[in-house]
């Protein structure tokens, strides 16, 4: 492999990904399960070298990282920047390295005071999305464990709101009696009906959850239908809570393709046709934009 | 200890309790963590003897059990009885025992076809409550992992609805990022405000969950306040979903005293003053009522 001129890093709570970059082109990619939660104190440099130490690295190769690696419990705290502000600003925060081949910088997250909210990592994806769509004005939605709804206008993040829908789905499907009810597969009709129910009557979530279990016991509700209905109840409640974000605005979805398809279907039933972008694309474009602030 | 003339057993998913009874009076009580989930196939009799085998038992001592022990995966399946019906009916289902000292009978649960719902164990508590309050007409609410709202009229269970609020609270507070936010203690104002918010805007749960985390990070939200607010959001959403049950009806709460106090406070803010009864009292009274169907 030719020597990368920089390294892009997406370092979240549960996983670490790195790309050897030449300009905006990835030469190689590596990933590990060593997310922030798995790193002992002082262990960030070693975990990164485990992943990229085999690459041919010039001295002081710039490494641009985003995500929870900049949290208080991360490699170095990159303090939140308060909105409204552009998704990236200034030079990312330097992290100390013993290895002279590395020059690590961490992109700060964003915070909002009222209502209180925070993001780390999504600001980089939004910057990447804006570098690809510089005139975008509307709402960027980033589905995932902590789904972010972000109002973007004139190149700035105006406001945002988080719904921990993905984490709620995981907790319900792994750590409650619903683990007996849900399973592989999908059911578009069950999903659509549940979204519609939760959008108009969000309180139905309270009784709809055990309803999945009871319908499985009494009527043999299929696991695929139960999965889709659970997802639909949660996404429908999220859409009810974030209506002020998506109603009447241009909406862009960034995330894993399967998950984005579900959000797109739910939004389309409400008359909103979102544009879809892969998370990888925006992450790399955003880290490349952050890299230009270090060595333009 | 004098010999009990029967044994009362409450055998749920996660725990087993037994009382040595003389008439309606408990002579002794024993408990173990060997709930249904912890019993290997064929292991129910051994688990029960571990707990009560040391008591002085006459041959064929009646043992009356309620709860998940009557589920398909339990000792013997006690098929659901469909509502509307009295909470108890007929002779409980016999379970095979090798030990000649035991004559085990299991109280069947109740089912409802539309909307699908099931209960196992609460029917016995309702029977006990009705034996103590024979003229009650209204709604019995049994807070817990799977909170039941039960419309009782003329000695029958007319309809019921389950909200898995307790299990949802446990999954959120143990298996999501909220485990960093919540802690010991309580905050009545935070609870009341959250109940009110969720009753009027139940969709706020979707964004209110991560809001607890963000407010902890940015504004130092106290763990006791976060706990009370999480509980209030969930109970408020439950009250919004079960309004048809509690609005304008006599309401009786049966359960753990601390939890019942929270439900009572939430209902009182809506102009409903429930009566409170301890779960132990109704369970024993209900098992005693079931015992009279075996040997009146």
Automatic annotation (TrEMBL), chains A, B:
GO BP annotations listed: D-galactonate catabolic process
Record-level Gene Ontology MF annotations: 2-dehydro-3-deoxygalactonokinase activity
Keyword Iron appears in the UniProt entry: no
Pfam families, per the entry: DGOK
Entry keyword set: Kinase, Transferase
Alphabetical list of InterPro entries matching this protein: DGOK, DGOK_C, DGOK_N
Protein name: 2-keto-3-deoxy-galactonokinase
Organism: Oceaniovalibus guishaninsula JLT2003
